[in-house]
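Hi U.,

Before I forget, here's the chain from the pilot set. I'm dumping it here mostly so it's searchable later in email.
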Amino acid sequence: MSHKSEKRRVGGLLLGLQGLAAVVLGWGLCAAAQAAPPTIGAIVPKSWPSAAQGEEIHKGMLLALKTSSIQPVPTLLVQDSGCDYRRAEAAAKQLVEAKVDLVLGGWCVLGGVPALLKTAGIPLVSANAERFPLEDPVLQLGRVGPRVGESVAATLRRETGLRVSASSSCWMDFEPVASEKFDAVLCPTVAIDRSRWTQVEGLYTAAFRTPFTMAAARGYAAMEVGLGYLRKLRSGAKPAAALAEARAIQTLLGPVPAPDAPTPAAAMQLLLTAKLPRLAPKESAQLNAMLKAKSCACKPGCNEGEAKWRELPFVLASCSAGSS
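Structure:
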């Protein structure tokens, strides 16, 4: 074999080895990319109106994250909204820049966050008690339909003459508390999976040495949905299919409602103050009809005046225990 032929043979062998090395390196990079942990962004009201509840939401998310079977464990990146829509929007922009895979939010405000994330193609899990007319990629945990709370409150104000609020702090913390500003407050309720609550409560108490709260449960439930979406995505499902399958998840606080699902009969509760104002005869009659219709479920035989109240999706606070 001539010197030139040998040189060509060696050169070809080296090129072949370099090509093989490039392929192997490419495989390694692909495997590393596949194994890279996803990042979950969260927009939480950590500083206001209650730093304690914001921390509980955060801990609830962490518990769901750390006890999940998804591997590798996603990274959690938390931003503070301070319950201000402008800060929430700024937080969403930061999460978009950080290239998160999805965002959990909506405990307090939404503002322009859904639009910002939709433009970036990032799914949002909204933990707001009320659903809004939003398109994909959004998963909403709220059981109260769009504008239903304010519509019911307006009916109560018009028919009974009472000062009724559907925007008090209970829509943030789910704790109905009477206010001197109003004669009644309309608040959301939750559907708790009691058997799972006991299990998660034990894990939370052991991990953080603090009581398990509704705020923590809401953080946990939102993370459950987010992880469900990521799990489907990692199994090869396309984003739209992963969103659809995530809607079938049974969370600690019940199933994810369909976007057009009707508001359940007990999705809200009405808390009346101990001392109601003097009312005109017509308004007093309507109030009495409402109280009779809502006295822990109106029995068959309600008259027409009571029946119209029975159809509205709320119960009296004293009758809301054990609602689903």
